[in-house]
Amino acid sequence: MSKAAELAALIGSGQAQTASNLIINGSNQIAQRATSSTSSGYQTVDRTRAEFSGASVTQSQQALTSGGPYNDGHRFFFRCANTSTSSATSAYLQINQEIEAQNVATSGWDATSSSSFITMSFWARSSLAGTYNIHLRTHDGTARSFSTTFTLVADTWKKVTATIPGNSGITVTNDNGIGLRCYIIVHYGTNYTSSGHTSDAWQTVDTADLTADFAQNWSNTASATFDMTGWQLEVGQVSTPYPHEDIGTTLRKCQRYFQIYGGVADSEMYSGYVGDTNNYFNTIRFFREMRTTPTMTINGSFATSNVSSAAFSYGSNRGFALRVTPSGSGRWYWYADGTADTYTADAEL
């Protein structure tokens, strides 16, 4: 049976769905925070984070100009580059996206059934040939994990696909918390691996047995790189073409979890005239409703005059109030006077 015929048959039987990607910004086109960072966590490409320890790593959004993923319509990729090696058994590098529980619960995947499947696919390339891992982990109830391997030839893009069944031990709550953690494991030191690990099977999470041992050591390889794009997680047993969407749609999805304001000289100005030091409140309406009440952070040195302090208060997932306390009398103002002056709303999982 051809791939097209197999997909048509599965769609007809209700076992596959199309154009539904549980991964957000899998094509790496949105990077609100920055395009490069040497820090671990959410730093560059929205909804995806590089988590690492031991080796020093630079994570970045890179332009894509040729190759297999380019031919599939991708114009950006996510890169991790090793800038300082480590042979520590505690060293690791994982690329992670956490999916909101209600998105998993309502996706059509029966996570508790071994006859119901999700399929992960992405393009990957590494400067270091070897065997790498996909790792899934549930959050609610008793945490469960699943790992499977894939191999790469050095400096060559490869389309990776893995189909994962449900399991009776899985719990996914229909709420706005973490539902499923999705990892691409570039390196785990032996603190986290086992020579007796069972791949392609769900198990209770054991942090000393997350995957099989790695034959190669990316973290201890000078100037090693790992690239990925076209990350997709869909219901069913067949990997369908990546569901490209317009950049505005992707940005709105990302803004449920992170929003940034300012960053333009002489912008986001708040001002008034006072004859006392009473607090003044300016309402900030978010671009879109966020997952939960976010953490608000002021970054940079905003230009001020006759202002004693400025802080956020009385917030929700729809907006916040900026509380400005003037000092002295006459006109006061508080505004961004440079591209580094921003304030952010963070509701990431």
What does this structure look like?
The chain has 349 residues and is mainly β. It folds into two domains: 3-254, Galactose-binding domain-like (Jelly Rolls, Sandwich), CATH 2.60.120.260; 258-346, Immunoglobulin-like. The chain is 8% helix and 43% strand. The chain has four helices and 23 strands. The protein has helices spanning 3-12, 68-71, 101-105, 247-254; strands at 36-37, 49-53, 56-63, 76-84, 92-100, 117-126, 130-138, 144-152, 158-165, 178-188, 193-194, 203-204, 211-212, 225-235, 258-262, 267-274, 280-285, 295-299, 303-305, 307-313, 319-326, 330-336, 342-346. The strands form six sheets. The chain has a six-stranded antiparallel beta sheet. It has a six-stranded antiparallel beta sheet with strand order 2-5-10-7-8-12. It is globular. The two termini are 41 Å apart. 37% of the residues are buried. Mean pLDDT is 93; it is low at 1-18.
- The figure for the number of domains is 2
Query: Strand order, biggest sheet?
Result: 1-3-4-14-6-9
Name the assembly state. Answer: single chain
So what's the overall shape?
Answer: globular
* CATH architecture classification name of the largest domain: Sandwich
Strand proportion:
35-45%
What is the radius of gyration? 23 Å
Number of helices: 4
Q: Briefly note the CATH topology name of the largest domain.
A: Jelly Rolls
CATH homology group of the largest domain: Galactose-binding domain-like
H/E element order: HEEEHEEHEEEEEEEEEHEEEEEEEEE
Spans of at least 5 consecutive residues with low confidence: 1-18
End-to-end span in angstroms?
41 Å
Main sheet properties: 6 strands, antiparallel
User: Would you report the number of β strands?
Assistant: 23
> What level of helicity do the residues show?
under 10%
